[in-house]
Amino acid sequence: MSKATEAPTSLKLFNWGFITVWLIVAAFPFMWTLWGSFKVELDFFSIADWTNALTGERTQAVYGSPFTGAGYYGAWVQEGFGSAVINTFIVCFFVVLTSLTIGTLGGYALSRSGFRYTFWLLIIALIFRAMPPITLVSGYLLPFFEWNLWGILPTSIIVLVAINQPFTLWMLHSFFQKIPKDLDESAKVDGCTQFQAFRFVIIPVMWPGVITTGLFSFLLAYNDFAVTAMLLNQENQTMVPKIASFLGTTQTEGNVMFAVAAVVSATVPLFILVMFFQRQIVSGLTAGAVKG
Amino acid sequence: MKHKTFFWFFLPTALAMLLFIAFPIVSVVVQSVFTPHEAVFKSVENSGPFGTTTETIIDQEAMAILKDERPLGQFAGLSIYLDRGHLAVSEVGDAWRSNETMSGFLSELRNLPFYRAMAFTLTYTFTVTPLLIILGFAIAVGVNSLHRHLKGLVIFFSLLPMIVTPLIGSLILFWMIDSRGILGTFLQYLANDPDLSLKASTGLTWIMLIVYGIWSSAPFAFVVFYAGLQTLPKDTLESAMIDGATRWQQIRYVVIPHLMPLVTFVALIQLMDNFRVFEPIVGFKAEAHATSLSWIIFNDLGGETQLLSSAAATSVLTIICVSILLAPVLVRTWRDFTAKT
Fold first, then answer.
1. Which residue of A has its CA nearest to B24?
2. In this structure, is residue B3 part of a structural domain?
3. How far is CA A271 from CA A238, A277, B156, in A?
């Protein structure tokens, strides 16, 4: 930056202060909960002195060390949080796989067909995207009970795939539009069918867009509460509804720390995800926006 | 692309959306105008060791026949929409007639579940959205002037509140804000009131939820605006500077107009998304003081006896509200499309 555009020191300081405050607001709650998850409840919720949560005085008294894995033991071993984790990853894996497979086909078709109906299909997708999932859930329950589909993982997976489709279509459509049409047109001139052109010309170059879209599909499936809480039975529960059910059962037994440990465990994969895919997430968020 | 090829490419995704989005919407509308059959009772005489007693039990056979004939239940017309749990037309009418003042009418309205939820949902949507845009913009401008090595780190931490599961995010804040948690204790110290509890007062609960809403959605606005700032026209900014524009004037007259389309985009998306507010109410256990339309549906569906018709009616009303919010988005997309072709 040139000398002329350099900010005066006071403004710089103000800016630094503001960003620091925002960073604390954004990150401190996670650090605090991570730290507190290794304490006993009387330290995490400290009536006597808030510094107990830092030093772990009660934890020291009970376990002989300021840190304890008791909350994690309770959540994972006693309450079987592990099976919820496995369910979550099964759901996420198949949701991402299926919605990307059918989404790329649909998104590619939308970006390559010049007819007017593609616009209307996109508009319909936009309307579907706006529907709160919970309003759809009340439409699922009756038929799913009737056909005995309620409670199992495949049902939730297919529902999440469908709810995910409008967003996936919009995103992939805009990615495919950035891939020059000449690429697959020339393949077709050389005698490829449309599908062959897609298979041999488009698939090799589409991965950046597909990975970004996949990340958002994963986040949607991972973060969902409304669908999985209503459509899965007790044994098949995924992490988020499991944590919600902890609140009902464990609070009374005084085991809030189970829920705290479970919450921290469920946040870790998201941390790792953001760490590795920050660039893709940012580009995905801005994909629809910056073009106007 | 030929129509036929297009059809085969688009078929899987179209089927998924048709079966699990379009049909459920129809099914919700249908459910909302039917009520479950009323139980058919019959009297049975029980001869036991203590004499004969007459008992009234539900006639399962007759119920089964009724269900077979009309599987959807009894046709109820719009009565579910008009009952006390939803639009409460007669209660609203009574309240309107019996109250001289507007505030009396409004306070009576607040006792009806639908209007109570509507009041919170609308307040939440229309306070969170502008505030998160302002905060997101401020962060974007701030981060943009940082050294480029720091930017990545700041963006990483800024993304966390948005990426994290809404229920988990609200629980994390809820535990901190608890009267025994660190923020709760701090607020008690600030207010000099050891009994202060955010959970006990309606106003403070609303503020708590709104703060959560801003915290969790500001990163989205930040990222979008930050990307917009990267495309800022350098020459316009420079000529503004040469003309003697102050730093504030540069932001006011160059940066903000440049970002305006993005502001509209973020506002429209966030209005729709904030209208769904639901997980924070569960996470903060705020239902005693604040409910939303989505929460009512969840509550109806999750209870011991699933109130499917009632949930369906609320769902339809929610869909209507979302459509109203959606209208400007559609108009905008239409205008973009016609401008392009």
1. A139
2. no
3. 19, 10, 9
Maximum CA pair distance of chain A? 79
B67 falls within a domain: no
Q: Does B161 touch chain A (CB under 8 A)?
A: yes
Give the residue carrying structure tokens 């009041």. B119
Domain containing B237 equals 125-290
Closest Cα in chain A to B189: A50
Please tell me whether residue A39 adopts helix, strand or coil conformation.
Answer: coil
Give the DSSP H/E element, type plus range, for residue B54.
Answer: strand B51-58
Instruction: Examine the domain organization and report whether B305 and B285 are in the same domain.
Output: no
Write down the pLDDT at residue B74: 78
Beta strands B51-58 and B41-48 are: antiparallel
Q: Which of A103, A139, A274 sits opposite B24 (nearest CB)?
A: A139
The number of helix segments (H) and strand segments (E) in chain A equals: 15, 0
Of residues A19, A124, A138, nearest to B311 (C-beta):
A138
Query: What pLDDT, in 10s, does the model give residues B48-89?
Result: 666 677 777 777 777 777 777 776 777 877 888 888 888 888
Q: How many domains are there within chain B?
A: 2
Q: Are residues B231 and B317 in the same domain?
A: no
Closest-CA distance, B193 to chain A, in angstroms, reads 14
CB atoms B181 and A45 under 8 Å: yes
Query: What's the complex ipTM?
Result: 0.89
Is B306 close to A195, i.e. CB distance below 8 A?
Answer: no
Across residues B274-289, what is the average pLDDT?
90
**What are the structural domains, with CATH classification, of chain A?**
3-74 (no CATH), 80-290 (1.10.3720.10)
Chain B residues within 8 A of A103 when measuring between CB atoms = 13
pLDDT surpasses 70 at A250: no
Q: How far apart are CA B234 and CA B255, in angstroms?
A: 10
- The CATH code of the domain that includes B152 is 1.10.3720.10
Put simply, the answer to whether A135 touches B297 (Cβ < 8 Å) is yes
The answer to whether A139 contacts B5, with C-beta atoms less than 8 Å apart, is no
Q: Does B191 touch chain A (CB under 8 A)?
A: no
Note whether B196 and B332 are same-domain residues: no
Which residue carries 């639908």 as its tokens? B114
Kindly state whether residues B136 and B284 are assigned to the same domain: yes
Report if residue B28 sits inside a domain: no
Give the percent of chain B with pLDDT over 90: 36
Q: Which residue of B has its CA nearest to A218?
A: B163
Query: Looking at the structure, do residues B169 and B232 belong to the same domain, yes or no?
Result: yes
Query: Can you tell me the mean pLDDT for A213-236?
Result: 91
Q: Do the domain assignments include residue B17?
A: no
